[in-house]
Amino acid sequence: MTNISLSERQNYIGGSEIAGLFGKSPYTTRYTLFHEKSGTISPQNLDDKERVQAGQFMESAIARWAQQAFDLKLRRVHRYIKHPSVGGFGVSLDYESVWGHTPWEIKNVDGLTFHNDWKNSGDEITHVPLHIRLQCQAQLACTGKSEHGLIVCVGGNRLLKTLLPRHEGTIKIMLDSIMQFWADVQVDNEPEPDFTADAITISRLYSNAGGGDIDMSANNRVNELVAAYDRASIDEKQAKQSKQALKAELLTLIGAADRVTCGDYTLIATPVNRQEYTVKASTYRGFRLTEKPAQNNKSEQLGQIIT
Q: Are 107 and 149 in contact (CB under 8 A)?
């Protein structure tokens, strides 16, 4: 959520979009941003999504809790902050400190996501995912502040915090990339797509049918892609069958266990209700598999993002 309307967002690269310019966002890409900002596809409106709405309602409660737990004085920020010299770049803050106006970001993170992507020591966060560090650096770039506070509520019952220092090298690269991005939009210089990450965007761009019949038999690449697509469809069906068989054998070994630790993996098996075509409702065991994360380099500086 930002402090400007959806239509106005098209004119700015925001803090939560910055990571997409560098191919580091789990939510967007430079290719997708190019088409959203140039108007060839409509931007996603996440404000009406259940998870986003939940975060909006919980944000103020987490902030009040943090003020008491960490002896902070925070206030909600309602203004949109534009960069003083780079056009088309602006950010929305969650909160800022009453004295000094240090920006503070509030995040509500489920326990499994935190376990996989974050690190902490006591109530201090020691590792922050890259896309969030970039978001904080973007906010520091626009506010001119020297540090950024981050408060994370984990699983609804743990409260953690950290302060991220300003990193001038990252901010310079960020500003240069934003200016280049808007220059590319002006001359319609489309970025190269990532056919995996940008599959949905490409589908939206070419969603209109009715173009008639064409013969591309002489195009070797089209023939290669069609053949590969056919093989992938067969592999997909076989992989699904293989996955179901593996799951069935695992269930005979783990029985009614909800969580299984096995080597480098944790397997979570929980009951799930699903509507079926032929049965009104059925219950089955859904699997979620996570791999233990590699140890992070303890010498990493939280503020150092891009070199």
A: no
Please check whether residue 232 lies inside any domain of the structure.
Answer: no
Q: Would you say 125 and 141 are in contact if contact means Cβ atoms under 8 Å apart?
A: no
Residue-averaged pLDDT of the chain: 87
Residue type for 140, please?
Answer: L
Indicate whether 274 belongs to any domain: yes
Q: Quick one: which H or E segment has residue 164?
A: strand 158-165
CB-based contact 191:184 (threshold 8 Å): yes
Looking at residue 270, its pLDDT comes to 74
Task: Tell me, yes or no, whether 14 and 132 share the same domain.
Answer: yes
Give me the CATH number covering residue 47.
Answer: 3.90.320.10
Are 148 and 46 in the same domain?
A: yes
Instruction: Please state, in angstroms and rounded to a whole number, the distance separating the CA atoms of residues 215 and 225.
Output: 15
Instruction: Please tell me the pTM assigned to this model.
Output: 0.80
Residue 300's pLDDT band (cuts 50, 70, 90): very low
Give pLDDT tens digits for 45-61: 655 566 666 667 789 99
| Residue 85: both structure tokens together | 């010299």
Full domain range(s) for residue 272: 256-293
Give the chain's domain count.
2
Pick from 190, 142, 181: nearest CA to 11 = 181
Residue 86 is classified by DSSP as: S
Supply the pLDDT for residue 299: 38
Do residues 270 and 153 both lie within one domain?
A: no
